[in-house]
Amino acid sequence: MEVVAMATAVLFEAASYALLFLATYWLLIWAYRLLLHPLSRYPGPFLAKLSDFHVGYHVLNQRLHLQTFRDHEKYGPILRHGPNKLVFSNTAALHDIYLNSSVSKSAVYDLTRQANGVSNVFNAIDKNLHRRKSRLVGRAINERSMRIFEPNMTAQIDVLLSTLLQSAGQPLNMTTLVKRLSIDIVGLLGFGYELKTQTDERDRWLAEGVVKGNFRINSYMNFPALRHTRMDYIMGLIAGKARLKYGELVGRLIRSRLSVARDAHHDLYASMTDEESLDGEKPLPQSEIFQEAVFFIPAGADTVSAAICAVLFYITRASHRSVYDELAREIRHTFATPNDVSGGPKLMACKYLRACIDEALRMSPPIGGTLLREQEESSKTNGEQLVVDGHIIPHGVQIGVSIYSLHHNKAYFPDPFAYNPDRWLSSSEEQKKVMKEAFVPFSIGSRSCPGKAMAYLEMSLVIAKLVSCFDISAAPGNLGLVGLRKMQAGDKGEEYDLHDVFVSTHDGPYLVFQPRKQP
Length: 519
Ligand code: HEM
What we know:
By secondary structure, the protein is mainly alpha-helical. The chain is built from 22 helices and 10 strands. It has helices at 2-36, 46-50, 53-60, 64-75, 91-98, 127-140, 143-166, 174-191, 206-222, 225-228, 231-258, 268-273, 275-278, 286-315, 321-334, 345-348, 351-363, 377-381, 403-407, 423-426, 429-438, 452-469, and strands spanning 78-82, 85-88, 103-105, 171-173, 373-375, 386-388, 391-393, 398-401, 470-474, 510-515. The strands form 4 sheets. Strands 1-2-8 form a 3-stranded mixed beta sheet, sandwiched between helices. It has a 3-stranded antiparallel beta sheet with strand order 4-10-9. Strands 3-5 form a two-stranded antiparallel sheet. Protoporphyrin IX containing FE (HEM) binds next to helix 6, helix 8, helix 14 and helix 22.
């Protein structure tokens, strides 16, 4: 009995010492981060100075882009947003970070790799590896390739139009329909595969699966502790079933692609193995090519669908009636029927359409978070100094510009919460220059989006065809409010509600489509 009591007392004492040690350890770390850390003089939320919990909480809430904006409003253009992280909201920092050859993607991108460890163009941090992948992927989705791919895209958009014709007069959730459309398009682009989620139920779960996958990687990137603790297990469970299904689907896509000739489709696989494109280089191993094709699903589907739904949301708000009328006038004047809408000089000349798209991308950027970067290893070892917006950045500090905050910075975009396509057309040349410099939905520099040409083509074709084919209005009653963000006191205007999971996800708008009489 006595031995048990003694052992319990010893254990109790050991546990107390361990707790005391842990408490002292964390107190010292927090005191260091608060008072002595090289970033201690930078303003930011108290909790963010001590730990990643501030950012982690808002990441799990899918509202980090909005919180970062609010923190900028409170603390100014330079924000300490983690013990070792600085976030900016101005163009000087944008250039110093993203156009700087001594800066690379942050090591947090490593956390987005698949279990097999193979990297893709998005998470390849090594510059040489990235350059090679980027050249090959870029060729598959540049403007030239898009001209060849356009008939596939148009055929899918026509499926959407026929769905809308069949349900004319009913309120329809555009998030559901546009996500299916954009997934079907990237399936064709990546693998030459007809997923047919617009017309067939089988793979419709993919839309939700992509969101879960994005949520997981975004949580890891912003709150890396999740990756290294048992939380990973919980996150795995959240994404678990979807991940298995995803693996099964990818296997099916690859088997189907390999069962036909290389040039049977104009897709990423054909482009990346084309001798002319390779220009004497060795092709990437098949596993890597398919890794790129798989990445097209989150990269090319949810981004474009967020943008299209945002445009549809803004142009159908009652307060934007004049925007809708002007857009309809331009499209219907340029194209006699929906079938006449195609890529090329006429579509490019639709300046108001482009302004409507750009204004939606500004207010509701599909990737609105902070793309984290850090000083290159080689630059550190050469003893070079990294200077951002006049600040010397200590080695190892994570840096980035919050795209949502930049796009809502009053210094560049007066009245930032007003959806005003005209700002892109009728502002002074000087003001246009200021806005263009601060408008970065596709990011800038060597890691900017190679899918920009495809995205503009898809967004323009969808909006132009819809406006040409239908009279569109917001659904009546409460359904018409789905997608409207609850604004904070002081935010004027109406904004499309995006949930930040790296690539944003969304719901609504619910719209009603009335077919127009065609000539
Ligand atoms: C409106 C639509 C789109 C937006 C707003 C957008 C935005 C972006 C942004 C901000 C990045 C940089 C991410 C980072 O630095 O971590 C990026 C990267 C990328 N995007 Fe897009 N994107 C769009 C559409 C597309 C499409 C249609 C594709 C192709 C199917 C695509 C393929 C990629 C790829 C492959 C990367 C990685 C590039 C690299 O790291 O070198 N994107 N995109």
